[in-house]
Amino acid sequence: MILNLTAADWLNLFTHFAALSLLAVGGAITTAPDMQRYLVTEQHWLTDAQFTSSVALAQAAPGPNVLFVALMGWNVGLNAGGGLQAGWIGLAYALLGVFVTMFGIMLPSTTLTFMAARWGHQNRELRIVRAFKQGMAPIVIALLVATGWLLIAGHSQPTKDWPLWLLAVICMLLVWKTKIHLLWLLGTGALLGALAVV
Amino acid sequence: MSAASELSQRTVLRPQPTSLSDLFWSMTWLALQGFGGVLAVVQRVLVDEKRWLTNEEFIEDWAVAQILPGPNVVNLALMIGDRYFGLRGGLAALAGVLAFPLLVVLVIAALFASVADMPMAQGALKGMGAVSAGLIAAVGLRLVSALKANVMSAGVCIALAAITFVAIAILRIPLAWVLLGLGAVATLWAYRQISAIELASKGGRS
Predict the structure, then answer these.
(1) Which of A25, A88, A164, B177 qualifies as a FRET site for B188, CA 20 to 30 Å off?
(2) pLDDT at B161
(3) If you ran DSSP here, which 8-state letter would residue A64 be given?
(4) Is B202 exposed, middle or buried (0-12, 13-18, 19+ CB in 10 A)?
(5) Is B150 helix (H, G, I), strand (E, B) or coil?
(6) Closest-CA residue in chain B for A49?
(7) Buried b vs exposed e over A152-162: b needs ≥16 C-beta within 10 Å?
């Protein structure tokens, strides 16, 4: 796919991601459905396969999941600049895509967090700030457990994919009760998955 | 300045990042361990290994990082960096969480984009996904002990946690609604408790 993106298109890409940034409570992944609508269905800047592999690849790689946004920008840039086979120009376009989407998704939320967290820290003796932190504690804890649950329940059924669930439960118990290094567990999971055991 | 005295007080009490580059590289190492999301390793590294935060502080900071928009691990890094070294610290921590992982993911995309579609890679991804699901749930379980110091009673804490879990995991209500609705109720309840405790302690003194 070869695109012809104007400066206005790049600006449009930036502002769209900047708008999504402030809606991304719970992480950028919560806005992924809208990104798909925008990039794939509406603008035709990415193929559906490129969109899906951006998410999958970023999840497989180490680092924050928000990097899937960088990969989307990378792919838009590749489509616009003729791909890596086009040489330096292709690479430059791909990197431009990375910067446009990443700055878009990061700048508004980061600025807001910076100011809000500073205010909260400076006013941490205020009764309402203390109440917020105390009140949120059990919710935050349950949220973590629920996130783990959703990560596995989103793609599988306990009855059919029980080895996968068993693996998750064993890992949960090991991490809860022991100090085993997490990379051992992730490596084992990758191996079991690659060998199709789970 | 009070910020300086606060900082020196902390030095006595517990470890903290020694410099901007310490902050940067610590965050880089933290992020690079996070296959399938950094959430699974963030508590282990910051609380257990680095001891920059206690479990209680981690929950408090995590609540803030979670309720604000944006990637929660990135928000947390920014907040911690800012607390130790101001804006420069926030940016150093932010760069640490993002720079090298970004490089890694781009190199993977450039070299192995086709690998992601192979059955073996898909399988490995599935296996790691299950592991990281377990790891993230375990972070929640490990933090339960920090609730002992909460101003709300154990019963209220359990009820709030249970409602949150059902709302998110079973009913799949959007996170923003749960955080705003239930968060407001919980904050008001905690506010009442704190007021009552402070009133009681004042009454005791007089």
Answers:
(1) A25
(2) 96
(3) -
(4) exposed
(5) coil
(6) B117
(7) bbeebeeeebe
Q: How far away is chain A from the Cα of B91, in angstroms, using its nearest Cα?
A: 10
> Would you kindly state where each structural domain of chain A is located, as residue ranges?
7-118, 127-194
Mean pLDDT value of segment A166-176? 93
Percentage of the residues of chain A whose pLDDT score is greater than 90? 55
Query: Among all residues of chain B, which has the CA nearest to that of A73?
Result: B106
Q: Residue B166 gets which letter from DSSP?
A: I
Neighbours of B36 (CB within 10 A): 26
- DSSP character at residue A179: -
Q: Which amino acid is at A143?
A: L
pLDDT reported for residue B12? 54
- Looking at residue B1, what is its pLDDT? 42
* CB pairs < 8 Å spanning A and B: 377
Question: Which residues, including other chains, have CB under 8 Å from residue B161's CB and lie 6 or more apart?
Answer: A138, A139, A141, A142
Closest chain A C-alpha to B143 CA, distance in angstroms: 7
**A4 or B87, greater pLDDT:** B87
Q: So what's the ipTM on this one?
A: 0.86
- Tell me the mean pLDDT in the region A41-49: 91
Residues of B in contact with A116 (CB under 8 A): 64, 68
Interface of A with B in 138-157 (CB under 8 A): 138-153, 155
Residue A190 touches chain B, beta carbons under 8 Å: yes
pLDDT at A45 over 90: yes
* pLDDT at res. B114: 67
- pLDDT value, residue B85: 94
What per-residue confidence (pLDDT) applies to B6?
Answer: 53
CB-CB contact of B31 with B97 (8 Å)? yes
CA distances from A17 to A1, A14, A45, A108, B121 (A): 22, 5, 14, 10, 30
What confidence tens digit (pLDDT) does each residue in A63-102 have? 898 999 999 999 999 999 988 888 899 999 999 999 999 9
Give the DSSP H or E segment for B134: helix B119-143
Out of B39, B127, B135, whose CB is closest to A193? B127
DSSP A120-145: HHHTTTSHHHHHHHHHHHHHHHHHHH
CB contact A106 to B (< 8 Å): yes
Sign of the CA dihedral B92, B17, B67, A37?
Answer: positive
Residues of chain B with pLDDT under 50: 1, 206
